[in-house]
Amino acid sequence: MGGSRVYVGVDVHKNFSFVCAMKENGEIILEKKVRTEELEKFLENIPGNRTIILEPTTTAINLARKLRKKNEVLLSHPYKTKLIAESKKKTDRVDAKVLADLARTNFLPTAYLPPDEIMELREIIRERIRLKKLSTSTKNRIHSILAKNGIKYDGNLFNSEGREFLNSLNNEWIDRYLRILSSIENEIKEIDKEIRQKCLENEETVLLTTIPGIGYFSALLIYAEIGDIKRFPNSKKLCSYAGLVPSTRQSGNKTITGRITKEGNKLLRWVLVQCAFVAIRKDERFRQFYERIKQRKGSQKAIVATARKLLTVVYAVLRDKKPYISYTPTSYYGEECTPVTNWA
């Protein structure tokens, strides 16, 4: 692969995609509609030193992983790219031509494209989440059948006693869903073994499990969603990435803070909130922090604040490659070298 730099914007869709190739001087040398299944081969045949730009959809990310072996590949940041396109290109549509031109003029805001090993961990985590959702929906179907037939049961339907009760009903549909549920649960057990093994093989995830509330699954998820901790200069940037920072607005000369932005990585934010609920039961320092916020702002804001605090601890543990030390007055975790009483 030789020659001058060529910027190739790709607008990826399910069946067909659109490609625009542009020279460094802005001259368009190619615009074409291509079948998505033929896209990889088509792009590899474009001459020159290729910089390929894609928006981060599932299909595009899978394509990017293949293309980056022989090309420079950039993922655009969807929200920021749209804002820049509106201001500089006077369009709200981010198409292949806009992607190529923004990259050519160094105005393209980029998103993180993780290495393959991180992508593989993300796939494992997402499969586990998918299986759990299937399990929940199957259980809901069984509850629905019972309600439809006016059958009540006081207790857990899905422990050993509950399943004995369900089997005793001799209901064809319930039996069918129980078989489906059993199959799903076996798959979950297998993938949980894989998650545990992956977690124990990795220095960073082992360190994360020293933090209260974080187990094998959540450690692997957090690590996979963050990637290289060095890409965040401080914990505030990481909290922003997770959407765990307050929104702000100007009113006259005042800056007013509001609810969390809920922008950023939804999966990371979700797991941190779940971990925070466990942390306040397991660790006195987290419990005190939660209770202090709860008294002033209520339980919902307190658990979100605890999730944010948990993420600052995650940042410190990964940055310093040191385990969390539970409830020691001189601990520096959370980035402040302060006693526990001032841990805020």
Automatic annotation (TrEMBL):
Transposase IS116/IS110/IS902 C-terminal domain residues: 207-291
GO biological process assignments: DNA transposition
Keyword Coiled coil among UniProt keywords: yes
Top-level lineage group: Archaea
Domain Transposase IS110-like N-terminal: residue ranges: 8-147
Coiled-coil blocks: 174-201
Claim: Coiled coil is one of the keywords in the record: yes
GO molecular function: DNA binding; transposase activity
UniProtKB keywords: Coiled coil
InterPro entries: Transp_IS110-like_N, Transpos_IS110, Transposase_20
Protein's name in the database: Transposase IS116/IS110/IS902 family protein
Organism of provenance: Archaeoglobus veneficus (strain DSM 11195 / SNP6)
